[in-house]
Design a protein that fits this description.
There is one protein chain. This protein has about 325 residues and is an alpha+beta fold. It contains five helices and 22 strands. Helix content is about 25%, strand content about 35%. The strands form six sheets. Strands 2, 4, 5, 7, 8 and 9 form a six-stranded mixed beta sheet that branches. Strands 13, 14, 16, 17 and 18 form a five-stranded antiparallel beta sheet that branches. The two termini are about 75 Å apart.
């Protein structure tokens, strides 16, 4: 039982090390992914509903939505213990809900941030909350609170007029990195929107194995971590196997022959004869033979004594 418990403890230790190593490898990855914003835009009018969710990000659950509002960082929920799941804002307010939003898990993993702007004005620019990929098409919408149709809107990039649209839409075909920038729009009768940053990302073609490799700057520390973890696991396995082997080894004591048998190893023993016998007394010699006796088919040697007279002195 003791040996079994020792081996089980060893196996659990190795599994814990492997789990810790996998977790460490995941934490070394670069921040990936963006929280999902529903509806998918960066600007909202006051009292509109907003949902920010992290569920399913990187195939994991248990994310917390964290936000920075005016320099104050806190979870979307009032309590940290109940802050997992989506962040649902029923009636958005400019002073309370405008800021940066991101996802966190256990303080070790963190997603990229999205900016949400809640305005009390009359015009917003509808642009994607997360990046647009190079080569894709993207359409920006300019609208007012009344959601009027057939509006004429002007679109600006980095403060420069790009286009006047009678449909209040700006479509950018085959987006490139040069289209990344700060966009605004204005409607003559209602005013100008807040600015939103359009992020453009390039497509990256990687093999499945390469997807698991972190950024180049993290390869050396991660490789060192993998090497050290491997040698620790091997060392623990060797030590555990050695301990198990020591406990399972049975020491066999080989019984030695009784002293009485060992003393009769010679086939014939002549007892010492007194060199100086008393006068007029006979001198005797004692001759000992070993007789083989079989006990349970095992031969035993039993001594048989014979007395021999050697005459008088």
């Amino acid at each position: 039982m003791e040996v079994t418990a020792l081996c089980i403890r060893l196996l659990m230790t190795v599994l814990l090390l492997l789990v810790a190593h996998v977790d460490l490898s995941d934490c070394q990855r670069a921040d990936a992914g963006f929280p999902q914003v529903v509806p998918n835009r960066q600007q909202f009018f006051e009292y509109e509903p907003i949902t920010v969710t992290c569920e399913g990000l990187e195939g994991l659950t248990g994310w917390r939505v964290v936000r920075r509002i005016g320099g104050d960082v806190k979870t979307c929920a009032a309590s940290w213990s109940t802050s997992t799941g989506p962040c649902k804002i029923k009636n958005a307010l400019a002073a309370v809900d405008s800021g940066e939003y991101w996802c966190e898990m256990g303080g070790a993993k963190k997603s990229n941030t999205v900016n949400i702007t809640v305005t009390g004005g009359s015009v917003i620019l509808e642009s994607p909350a997360f990046p647009v990929m190079v080569g894709d098409d993207v359409t920006l919408h300019c609208r007012n609170k009344q959601m009027s149709s057939n509006l004429t809107a002007a679109f600006f990039k980095d403060g420069h007029l790009m286009e006047n649209s009678s449909m209040a839409n700006l479509t950018i075909n085959s987006v490139s990195k040069s289209d990344e920038g700060l966009y605004t729009c204005s409607i003559p009768e209602d005013g100008q929107s807040s600015a939103s940053w359009l992020i453009v990302r390039e497509h990256t073609v990687t093999s499945p194995a390469a997807d698991k490799v972190p950024h180049r700057g993290l390869q050396l520390p991660l490789l060192l971590c993998i090497t050290v973890s491997f040698f620790l696991v091997v060392l623990l396995l060797l030590m555990g196997l050695l301990q198990c082997w020591k406990h399972q080894t049975i020491t066999i004591d080989i019984p030695t022959s009784p002293p009485s048998i060992q003393s009769f190893c010679s086939p014939l023993t002549v007892a010492e004869v007194e060199s100086e016998a008393a006068p007029n007394r006979e001198t005797y010699a004692v001759i000992t033979n070993l007789r083989r006796v079989y006990d349970n088919e095992e031969p035993l040697f039993m001594p048989v004594y014979h007395t021999l007279s050697l005459g008088t002195a």
